[in-house]
Structure formats: C-alpha cells, structure tokens
Amino acid sequence: MAANGPSNGRFIDSYDPEDPEYIREQQRPPVIREDVREMEQRKRVSLVLHSQSFRDELEEIITTQLQKGPQPASLLALQQISDLIQPQSRVNQSFAAGFGKGGVAPSILPILDITRANAEKYTKGEKLLRCKMASVYRLVDMHGWAGLHTHITARVSQEQEHFLINPYGYLYSEVTAASLVKVNIKGELVDMGSTMLGINQNEFTLHSAVHSARPSIRCIIHLNTAAASAVSALKCGLQPLCLEAVLCGKIAYHEYRGAPVILDEADSIRHSLGPFSKVLFLRNHGFLALGETVEEVWYYARNCAIACETQLNCMAYGMDQFYQPSEDTIEKMLETERSAEPAVEGKKQLRWDVGQREFEALMRWMDNAGYRTGYVYKQPVVKVERFLKKFGDVEVPPSASSAHDLLANEEEIDPIIKAAMSAKKKKEKTQWLNAPNTSQSQTVEVDDDGMTVKTTTTTTTSKVSSSPAPN
Q1: Three-state DSSP string of the chain
Q2: Fewer Cβ in 10 A, N or C end of the chain?
C-alpha cells in the first residue's frame, strides 16, 4: 500500500483512501480478510522454521541439553519439533540406536486395519486371530528377532486346514491384520490379504509338517537368531541354567536337513517332536516354539530365546562352571511358577491360560503406544466398583481395547457390568410403565340447526400398572 503521510505522523495518515489495493482490501468480506491475515502469519512462521539458522540453533540447544542429564518435558517437545522440521538429522541415530540394541526404529503403522469392506469375508474368530498374529510379528520385530528364516504360522480352521502366514518380502514392522496371507496345508493360496505378495514355500513346508504331526498345535514360531542357532549347534543343547529354560519344559531335537519336501522327513519330524514337547530345536537352524494359542506360543518362544542368550553368556566362563539343578529342584520351580496367582480381595480369581497374562500386558503396552492391536482383554485394567442404585451413562468406563464394535461379544462382557446394564433396563421399563397416562376428550353439543352450542373438554389421568394381567 502507498504511504502518503509522514513517517512520524499518525497511523491513519499512512493510508491513502484512493489507493486501489487499500480499496480492494476494504471491500473484502471480514471472513476473507481474516483468512488472508492467517495465511500471511503462517507464511512468516514457515519462513522462520525452515530457515537454516533456526534449525542450527535449535539443534545446538537440544544437543547441549541432552548432554547435561535429565530430559524435561519442554526439551522433549523441542526435540519433537526438531525431528519434524529436520527429520533426516535423526534417522541415522534412530536406526543405529534401535538395531544396535536389538530393536528397530519406532513404527506407528496400526495393526488393526481390517475395513468394513473386507470384514465380511472374515469370521469373527479369524479377525481376532489376525490381530494377534500381526501383534506377534511386531513383538518379534521389537525384540530384534526378525530375520529371513523367521516365520510365524497359525491355524485358522481345524475343519478346512487353513493357515495364516506373513507375505514374503514384508518387513515384520509392516505386517498388519489384513496383510496376512491365508494358505491351505499344501501352501496353496486361499486369500492373498491386502498385498500382492506370496509366501516362502520352503519355510511353510516345515511348519506344515509340524501342524500335521500335532493337530492340537494352533500356532508355531520359528526363531533363528544368533543365540538360538548357536545353542542348536551345541551337542549338549539347551541346559536348565535359568528359570526361562526350565519353563520351556521338555526340549525336543531334530536333525534338520532342509525343507521336508518328502514324506520321510515329515515323519522324522513327527517322531522327534513327540506328543508333548512345546520346543523343538532344529540342529544348526534355531528352534520352533509350539502352542495351542497365540499367547502360549509367545510364552515359549520368549522364554527359549532368553534361555539361549543366558546359556551363551554362561559359556564364556567355561562349561565346568555350570551348575545343573536337580530334577526335584526343577519340578519345584515349575510348581511354584504355575501356582503363582495374584491375590484379589473380594473377587473371584480368573483362570489364566499359559502366557495369557504376559501377552495381555504386552498388548496393553502396544495399545497405549498407538499400535491399535485389536486385542480383546480378558481382565480390564480399570477397576470396576459394584453399584446397585446409580446407573449413569459414564458410570462404568470402557476397558482398554481398540477392537471397538468389530470384535464386541456379549460373552466377553464383565459379569458386574452385564448385571448393571440389565438392572438399568429393568428400571427404565418400570419407570415407563408407571408413568402417568394423560388424555383429553371433547364433548360438543349442537342444536337442531347444526350450530355448536357448548364444547366441554375433559382431562383424564390414569396409571398403567406393571403387575401382570389376570388370566
């Protein structure tokens, strides 16, 4: 705009009423003027944030504060702003810190991605299984156990012999509920999921042989980490040197000779596995963890992986330094672990399956981190108080779950909440039945000529009794 007035005069004198730009601005609607003003402010802020001098100064402040010790909330906020403005400065650090410690860079890809359009082709049980399977893939990735020969399979249907497995070529941090591939016992594709990728046929053949040998096994995890491969190559195998090794139970071993493409190899795996073992070491090829549920297979896989790492650490001090617990000690350790139940005052104890409590805690952690696992919790973290008189819309907070109505089930509702909802419905019905019923009637008197002489309005109030009608 033109400024005609003196620089030291009044602000109004700096505007020229005849200036075309000033006239055009005054003719704009107030809403548009406000939008233009906000756009100019955003432009100025964007110029400041994207300036190299601001980036350098912000990075210097964060680096200096990080070297001093504790990280206050304000510093973390500045660091997030720095990552948003200059993400490339933190990429290498995040990946180096994650992979160097056996983890991965953080991922925010949600696990429950089954849309309503795709939900129709999956049964309710398969939806839950897909969410659990994808969550296990994420857990394996977070623990740094993901690898080319690491696979997880789960039996979908006992009748049709369908199985879920990850698409070959997907990172474990990318696996979601909808991306899992469904195949039959021969490895033939039944449902490709949300990707166009196939599966690792050789690795699935190994899983297929185990599934055929033990029909009661629903889920299998094959871990081929450095520690697992090292222990599988030892003649002594896995030794009961820690609690995790004891919890693995009876360990089976098999001389691995590649994928069991022939019937004799499948029979050999069946013979080596036996009817009760839940951990099978493949010589020089890691181990297989077996479970009747996803929670159970994660329980054995985690314990066995930790036991392998513990044994390798102990071997650095020599084999003669190992202390082997007796059979009685091992039985007492198992009995103590199985009988460990938390005491809850005034409430009936829930029956937890093997590994269910630990797996539910991990799912709760992942949901709080924003992964949206879709897991249906057996025991909500929120404490529910018993109440009989007050029934409000927010009396009972929802349990922590991201499954929403997609995975809701009446049988999974807490009995206390179910009783409260039933009592509330009865109370509302009683109030409606006992509510006064008001009606009006009009009486009109007319003469012989049809003219209205008198109009009488009568109001009648009656109550409908909630007691049953007599026969």
Answers
A1: CCCCCCCCCCCHHHCCCCCHHHHHHHHCCHHHHHHHHHHHHHHHHHHHHCCHHHHHHHHHHHHHHHCCCCCCHHHHHHHHHHHHHCCHHHHHHHHHHHHHCCCCCCCCCCCCCCCHHHHCCCCHHHHHHHHHHHHHHHHHHHCCCCCCCCEEEEEEECCCCEEEECCCCCCHHHCCCCCCEEEECCCCEEECCCCCCCCCHHHHHHHHHHHHHCCCCCEEEEECCHHHHHHHCCCCCCCCCCHHHHHCCCEEEECCCCCCCCHHHHHHHHHHHCCCCCEEEECCCCEEEEECCHHHHHHHHHHHHHHHHHHHHHHCCCHHHCCCCCHHHHHHHHHHHHCCCCCCCCCCCCCCCCCHHHHHHHHHHHHHCCCCCCCCCCCCCCCCCCCCCCCCCCCCCCCCCCCHHHHCCHHHCCHHHHHHHHHHHHHHHHHHHCCEEEEEEEEEEECCCCCEEEEEEEEEEEECCCCCCCC
A2: C
For 4, phi then psi, to 5°, come to -95, -25
Q: Which residue has the higher pLDDT, 396 or 346?
A: 346
The answer to whether 219 and 153 have CB atoms below 8 angstroms apart is: yes
CB 172 within 8 A of CB 140: yes
List phi, psi (to 5°) of 390.
-95, 130
Say if residue 218's pLDDT is above 90.
Answer: yes
Q: Which amino acid belongs to residue 145?
A: W
d(CA 428, CA 294): 42
pTM of the model: 0.61
- From the list 70, 89, 67, the residue with the least C-alpha distance to 80 is 89
Tokens of 400: 């922590």
Residues forming beta bridges with residue 444, ordered by sequence position: 455
Name residue 230's amino acid.
A
CA 173 to chain centre: 13
Instruction: Tell me the range of 111-120, 204-213, 266-275 where mean pLDDT is highest.
Output: 204-213
Amino acid making up residue 410: E
Q: 102: alpha, beta or left, given left = phi > 0 and alpha = psi -120 to 50?
A: left
| Gap between the Cα atoms of 247 and 265, Å rounded | 29
Question: Mean of the pLDDT values across residues 394-399?
Answer: 45
164-177 residue pLDDT tens: 999 998 899 899 99
- Whole-angstrom distance, CA of residue 355 vs CA of residue 296: 5
Classify residue 55 by burial, with Cβ atoms within 10 Å: 0-12, 13-18, 19+. Answer: middle
